[in-house]
Amino acid sequence: MPYPTDRDRDRPWVMRTYAGHSSARKSNELYRRNLAKGQTGLSVAFDLPTQTGYDPDHELARGEVGKVGVPVSHIGDMRTLFDGIPLAGANTSMTINATAMWLLSLYVTVAQEQAEAEGTDWHEVVAKLAGTTQNDIIKEYLSRGTYVFPPGPSLRLITDMVAWTVANVPKWNPINICSYHLQEVGATPVQEVAYSMCTAIAVLDAVKNSGQVPQERFGDVVARMSFFVNAGVRFVEEMCKMRAFTDLWDEITRERYGITDPKQRRFRYGVQVNSLGLTEAQPENNVQRIVLEMLAVSLSRKARARAIQLPAWNEALGLPRPWDQQWALRMQQVLAYETDLLEYEDIFDGSPVIQAKVDEIIAGAKAEIDRVQAMGGAVVAVENGYMKTQMVSSLADHRRRIEAGEEVIVGVNRFESTEPSPLQAGGVKAIETIDPVAEREAVSAIGQWRGERDASAVADALNSLRDTAKSDVNLMDATLACARAGVTTGEWSAALREVFGEYRAPTGVAGVSASGEAGAALGEVRDQVKATGEELGERLRMLVGKPGLDGHSNGAEQIAVRARDTGFEVVYQGIRLTADQIVAAAVQEGVHVVGLSILSGSHLEAVPAVVEGLKAAGAGDIPVVVGGIVPPEDAKVLMESGVARVFTPKDYEMTQIMAEIVVVIREANGLVSA
Fold first, then answer.
1. How far apart are CA 368 and CA 381, in angstroms?
2. Which residues form a coiled coil (predicted)?
3. Catalytic residue chosen out of the listed positions 388, 546, 592, 603
4. Distance in angstroms (rounded) separating the CA atoms of residues 541 and 571
């Protein structure tokens, strides 16, 4: 995007809506409708099996297929997803990390096929491809949880992609360094800036050290680095954060990497504003939150986002409908086309107040960057748990301030009285629901795909992939060959799992406590936990489990921290567990309650599997409680299936949740109420 320096009106940013669900066909229909409404870019949401490298018929994919995004299992699905959408003229953002190389290969292959069908040179078409693969695996270990491989091999996949795209797809951003998810799990503005820059340094150093890019072209590598950030409702501070990002990136790329071209040093970022900051209580208030958060990344011209996607007002309730997404798009269009925002130079230049805040964030970020670099860089700070512990601690402090009323959330901890919302009058129809038949169809389709392809070609392609992974040869060509042969997402990932192994990141829970929480309420619950344990003759034990593929672990981590601080012995094994693994741990540890955390919408499949598993193991007397984004109708179904309690985002007082869990344990053990 050009950045005019005269009084000409600036060009609007790329406008996207994060979208995709059910199937490639239904998502394609959604994309076409959104483009017809004036959306200028696509933002593809992939489902969790696709993100974590599983086919729809894998055990861990149960209940997750098509829920939080579109399932793409092979080249056939990618063809369907972009049917009728010429990729040479598209601007596509793909939220994909561990399997980014695979999805990019499918995308490039479809672009080649489109060119060949039109009789044009596919090399020219591929050279025009514009967009982004998110591909920031560092933040996956810290927040989102859709990692697969250990840090070293993951960084190799990123390095190979960067080197290949710079040479072959020069307009493509091979990575979005993602501070977005860091904020969602508690990062302060200083941490958000610092840890993003540490990730960028790790990637640039790895590419440089690989020797795959000539020194004279390293500026092209820096120029294709892009960022994906978050913007909270403290929009003045957030705007200052973006100016700090811009200044610090310019300094690092100039001084550390010797980039002399100012255009190559430009901080290029897209944004989605804070989704986890949206509230279930009085959700209509989310509209003004979203608008204010959008201002944070658009007001300052020198630090303005060049791509924006906004969540819908009802995302704390469930999956938004097309109309809800349209409303979010219209917010952007009103700001860009009706206001005079794009007609002026930066309106904050020269403000001492703004500059002081920017300088404060930069100073704090530099100190934290130095701390991480002294450890050995971002990868080491992931492996030793430092960055994860810092963010779990920050989020614990943030939640403490909300519970204490020090931070006001309108409609949640203040101004709670409300009229019934006409926006929710439709009940379950007020959100999008995914027909369970979508998963059955995907499972059937993957079986049919495997039966119709050339099995010999698939085997040869996978063998070549394994051999390449064992060498230091760039993996992109071998991956492209797999895409053309009809290899599936699960098969590509499984082949690399054989070579690279898998990884379980530190949870960050062990070193954190809810500091400042020793108030009357917490003390009372501690007494209840202790007294109940004495009546049962042992310390109360709670298992916190994350079934399925949902990697949003911050809720589970905060529950684990608060449970431990109230006196529970806590068993928390991290993310991505099968129902059988959770049941086995509950039985082996002899826990008094199982708490399941799910944000992906798979609760109606994953939770009953655990409840039935406990019964089958002779442990049906262990109560199960659930936390997550669970619509009221689904909560009733879970309670009828044997779940003792369901907690949703409106239940923000975690100490009160602990008190309720003590009641659940007493009820399950026939104890008189305390």
1. 11
2. none
3. 546
4. 7
Out of 54, 107, 141, 180, which one is annotated catalytic? 180
Q: Are 224 and 165 in contact (CB under 8 A)?
A: yes
Cα–Cα distance measured from residue 512 to residue 118, given in angstroms and rounded to the nearest whole number: 59
Do the strands 541-545 and 18-19 form a parallel or antiparallel pair, or are they unpaired?
unpaired
In sequence order, what are the residues at sequence separation of 6 or more whose Cβ sits closer than 8 angstroms to the Cβ of residue 46? 20, 69, 70, 71, 72, 94, 95, 96, 103
Q: Is 386 in the active site?
A: no
Share of the chain above pLDDT 90, in %: 70
Q: Based on the residue annotation, tell me whether 546 is a catalytic residue of this protein.
A: yes
Active site residue 21: no
What confidence score (pLDDT) does residue 2 get? 41
Within 13 Å and on the Cβ side, how many CA atoms surround 33? 13
Name the catalytic one among 58, 67, 74, 181: 181
pLDDT in tens, 505-549: 777 676 565 555 446 788 899 999 999 999 999 999 999 999 888
CA angle 634, 640, 645 (to 5 degrees): 75
Which one of the listed residues 136, 550, 565, 634 is annotated catalytic? 550
- What's the CA gap between 52 and 106, in Å, rounded? 16
* CB-based contact 282:423 (threshold 8 Å): no
The H or E element spanning position 176 is strand 175-178
Q: Which tokens sit at 458?
A: 């698939």
Q: Which residues contact 6 (CB under 8 A, 6 or more apart)?
A: none
Q: How far apart are CA 147 and CA 176, in angstroms?
A: 15
Q: What angle do CA 147, 589, 593 make, to 5 degrees?
A: 85
Is 83 catalytic? The answer is: no
Crossing angle of helices 100-118 and 476-485, in 10° steps, is 60
Length of the chain: 674
Whole-structure pTM over 0.85, yes or no? yes
Among the residues of 129-228, which ranges form H helices?
A: 137-139, 151-168, 180-184, 189-210, 218-223
| DSSP assignments along 308-367, one per residue | EE---TTTTTSBPPHHHHHHHHHHHHHHHHTSSGGGSS-TTTT-HHHHHHHHHHHHHHHH
CA 280 – CA 661 distance, rounded (Å): 21
For 490-555, give the DSSP string: HHHHHHHHHHH-------S-TT---TT--SHHHHHHHHHHHHHHHHHTS--EEEEE-BTT----HH
* Parallel, antiparallel or unpaired: strands 14-16 and 42-45: unpaired
CA angle 380-386-392, nearest 5°? 140
Tell me if residue 180 is catalytic: yes
Q: Which residues have C-beta within 8 Å of that of residue 296, sequence separation ≥ 6? A: 231, 232, 235, 236, 238, 239, 241, 242, 273
DSSP 570-611: EEE--S-B-HHHHHHHHHHHT-SEEEEEE-SS-HHHHHHHHH
Q: DSSP state, 290? A: H
pLDDT at 618: 95
What is the C-alpha R_g of the chain? Answer: 25
> Is 592 marked active-site?
no
506: closest CA among 381, 392, 388, 391? Answer: 388
Catalytic residue among 58, 388, 552, 592: 552
Instruction: List the structure tokens of 115.
Output: 């060119």
